[in-house]
């Protein structure tokens, strides 16, 4: 079965079948990555352009590894050291990489909507690698993959997302993705960082609720996902006191004890250790934070492969 979408812009456009297809294909890609030579020639002759207008470690490196593992050529364009520094517009840069032969574009941009402009400008598929506060769909897919791999299901699980929901593109994409797969999502954080409109995303059908008290929110949770406090996106005095924040919203041993015994701790990274999460929890038994990073390569391979026209059946035989 092929993907029904031409681009990966956000998971609001993806139904259960498409998300399931990417997760299943991710399993085939993880098998490739487990081989002694973790590489297939499937996309030989294909060029993927990574346009990163904003800082990234995990996403940029894993998209590059994913493309190379599929045999594709990769070109990296960053704001620093390219003609973007000379004031070249986004559209001109996009048209330039297309003229240079890009067959797919992965884009991270500080402005929400930039990947949609890219999709409207280009003839090739576009993957959103994070746009402003808006969306980070490949992060949500790797989070879904990690939970499904660990717990064996997504339907009916209770996911708590705690932290700076307001500025979090990870939270928004995860709300779409986990709700689409039938999970219950509880959002927790300081009231000024908890936008109520995210509980009313179309099609999420009462699956998303808000609980400002973390001790209450984590009761019987299957997954507790901490989000980074995004100091760089704070305007005004959203969060005057990080110590008070840590007291109320940091994931601690005591809080985790209120969740299900096999509950997973997740964080998209980068972490502010000692603020939203302690090192003990981040590197403890319940943590799957490093698995999230590892799984990101297989899931991004799946996304690239399917957008390039591959099918789940063919992926199995790679
Ligand atoms: N999770 C995430 O997007 O991390 P990077 O900013 O390092 O890519």
- CATH class type of the largest domain: Alpha Beta
Q: Mind summarizing the main beta sheet?
A: 5 strands, parallel
Could you estimate the helical fraction of the residues in percent?
Answer: 25-40%
How much of the sequence lies in strands comes to 5-15%
Order of helices and strands: HEHEHEHEHEHEEHEHHEHHH
> What would you say the CATH architecture of the largest domain is?
3-Layer(aba) Sandwich
Compute the number of helices: 12
Rg: 19 Å
Described by its quaternary structure, the protein is: single chain
Within the CATH hierarchy, at the fold level, what is the topology of the largest domain?
Rossmann fold
Please give the number of β-strands.
9
- Globular, elongated, flat, extended or rod-shaped: what is the shape? globular
Tell me the strand order in the biggest sheet.
7-6-5-8-9
The span between the termini is: 15 Å
CATH H-level superfamily of the largest domain: Aspartate/ornithine carbamoyltransferase
Overall pLDDT metric: 94
Small-molecule binders here are:
phosphoric acid mono(formamide)ester
Secondary-structure-derived class: alpha/beta
Explain this structure:
The chain has 318 residues and is α/β, with parallel strands linked by helices. The protein is 37% helix and 14% strand. It is built from twelve helices and nine strands. The strands form two sheets. A five-stranded parallel beta sheet has the order 7-6-5-8-9, with helices on one face. A four-stranded parallel beta sheet has the order 2-1-3-4, with helices on both faces. Helix 1 (16-33) crosses helix 5. The longest helix has 19 residues, at 289-307. The model has no long low-confidence stretch (mean pLDDT 94). The structure holds phosphoric acid mono(formamide)ester. Residues 56-59, 130, 139, 268-270 line the site of phosphoric acid mono(formamide)ester (CP).
């Amino acid at each position: 079965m092929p993907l029904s979408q031409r681009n990966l812009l956000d998971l609001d456009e993806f139904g259960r079948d498409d998300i399931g297809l990417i997760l299943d294909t991710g399993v085939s890609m993880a098998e490739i990555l487990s081989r002694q030579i973790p590489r297939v020639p499937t996309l030989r002759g294909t060029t993927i352009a990574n346009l990163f207008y904003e800082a990234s470690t995990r996403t940029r490196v894993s998209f590059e590894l994913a493309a190379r593992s599929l045999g594709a050529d990769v070109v990296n364009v960053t704001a620093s050291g390219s003609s973007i520094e000379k004031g070249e517009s986004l559209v001109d840069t996009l048209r330039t990489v297309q003229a240079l032969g890009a067959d797919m574009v992965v884009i991270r941009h500080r402005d929400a909507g930039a990947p949609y402009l890219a999709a409207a400008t280009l003839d090739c598929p576009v993957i959103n690698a994070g746009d402003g506060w808006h969306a980070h769909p490949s992060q949500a897919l790797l989070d879904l993959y990690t939970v499904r791999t660990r717990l064996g299901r997504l339907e009916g699980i209770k996911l708590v997302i705690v932290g700076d929901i307001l500025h979090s593109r990870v939270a928004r994409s995860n709300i779409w993705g986990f709700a689409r797969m039938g999970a219950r999502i509880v959002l927790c954080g300081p009231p000024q960082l908890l936008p109520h409109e995210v509980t009313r995303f179309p099609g999420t059908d009462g699956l998303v609720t808000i609980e400002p008290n973390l001790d209450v929110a984590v009761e019987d949770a299957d997954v507790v996902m901490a989000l980074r406090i995004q100091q760089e996106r704070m305007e005004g005095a959203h969060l005057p006191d990080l110590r008070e924040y840590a007291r109320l919203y940091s994931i601690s041993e005591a809080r985790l004890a209120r969740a299900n015994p096999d509950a997973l701790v997740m964080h998209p990274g980068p972490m502010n250790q000692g603020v939203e999460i302690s090192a003990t929890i981040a590197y403890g038994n319940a943590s799957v934070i490093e698995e999230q990073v590892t799984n990101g390569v297989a899931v991004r391979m799946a996304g690239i492969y399917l957008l390039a026209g591959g099918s789940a059946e063919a992926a199995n035989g790679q």
